Amino acid sequence: xxxxxxxxxxxxxxxxxxxxxxxxxxxxxxxxxxxxxxxxxxxxxxxxxxxxxxxxxxxxxxxxxxxxxxxxxxxxxxxxxxxxxxxxxxxxxxxxxxxxxxxxxxxxxxxxxxxxxxxxxxxxxxxxxxxxxxxxxxxxxxxxxxxxxxxxxxxxxxxxxxxxxxxxxxxxxxxxxxxxxxxxxxxxxxxxxxxxxxxxxxxxxxxxxxxxxxxxxxxxxxxxxxxxxxxxxxxxxxxxxxxxxxxxxxxxxxxxxxxxxxxxxxxxxxxxxxxxxxxxxxxxxxxxxxxxxxxxxxxxxxxxxxxxxxxxxxxxxxxxxxxxxxxxxxxxxxxxxxxxxxxxxxxxxxxxxxxxxxxxxxxxxxxxxxxxxxxxxxxxxxxxxxxxxxxxxxxxxxxxxxxxxxxxxxxxxxxxxxxxxxxxx
Length: 425
Ligand code: FUB
Description:
The protein has strands at residues 8-17, 20-28, 49-55, 61-69, 86-90, 93-99, 105-110, 138-141, 147-151, 157-161, 168-174, 182-191, 194-201, 208-213, 221-227, 239-243, 246-253, 269-274, 307-308, 311-312, 319-321, 327-329, 336-343, 351-368, 375-381, 391-396, 403-424. The chain is mainly beta. Strands 19, 23, 24, 25, 26 and 27 form a six-stranded antiparallel β-sheet that branches. The chain has a five-stranded antiparallel β-sheet with strand order 1-2-3-4-20, with no helix packed on it. A hairpin with a 6-residue loop joins strand 13 (194-201) and strand 14. The chain starts with 7 loop residues before the first strand and ends with a strand. The model has no long low-confidence stretch (mean pLDDT 97). The structure holds beta-L-arabinofuranose. Beta-L-arabinofuranose binds at residues 10-11, 26, 45, 83-84, 135-136, 184-185, 200, 235, 237.
């Protein structure tokens, strides 16, 4: 199942910085997030901002909220259309490349992966005024320091970037050949001396294809599918990286929406799976997301340090608020947070504390290994007077030792609740 359930996410852009895998995504609105109330049951794209998630174990993901939005580009003409981005790091700065429908591709810059991102140009980085094909930018900085940007649907374009990463070097090139099944969503990278251009294949249903080359300028040779088309999906979009000795492909599907409806809406969700490279650099095909095993957890989670409440493997029905200090909200009876692979150690935990604010209250039952598993503690979050007034609630814990999945199960929930962070002792 998709790695995030608290928001609809699409167009995954992974970026590994040190110990952490950051994942920038676009953000399909849920019905209540659509700005025009008359459009709330429409099937189309309603995309206003870009979200950030992070992990250190590939099993639990932490939400960081919307780190950039269309409003960061003062020259944009549309309020909808925050489509696929990629963020890359160079010389301590983070460059976020974004399509601005009908206005080319822009770039935002930040000193931190968490933002804030600012527009250094006040105008597009590239803009081919004669068509609307300037979408889905991907940027790769080669070993010699030369950066390349590819993009486009249904044609593929590329250009070199200057070292400042916010201006182009030379002219825009259009591939004068069509990569097999190429539709959109290119993802450019290099691995073991081979250059790769992965992409979403011919719509619809889109799948994941790729091409290889000896040069970032091509020529590219199509190599087939990473994931074949299936009627269970419609749109797809690759993001590929190596992390802690494993290789991953990210993509997207409608499988969280399908928990509610099979009527088509653009409410997508990002999934990921491990990929394996053959000796010649080609990539072994992987089955459709739902036919895969869950991602292997790379290291257990330490519950004796501060854990953000928005860190989870599963949290369907819950929602995220805030940027910077992000919290869990929209808590209802029967919902739960699953945190995978929590290492309580041999001695086990004695107490549990959660920092929360509430114009209301909820009970949080701590269970091991399943939603119905053994209870190790029960916490009550009580009214704090305001959703901005946080206080710590504590409870005793018994029976939590060793390695377990932790379930925070909610009931007797009322009012507006914000869950900030928790910690065992
Ligand atoms: O998310 C909007 C668009 O859908 C992207 O730009 C495409 O790659 C496709 O995923």
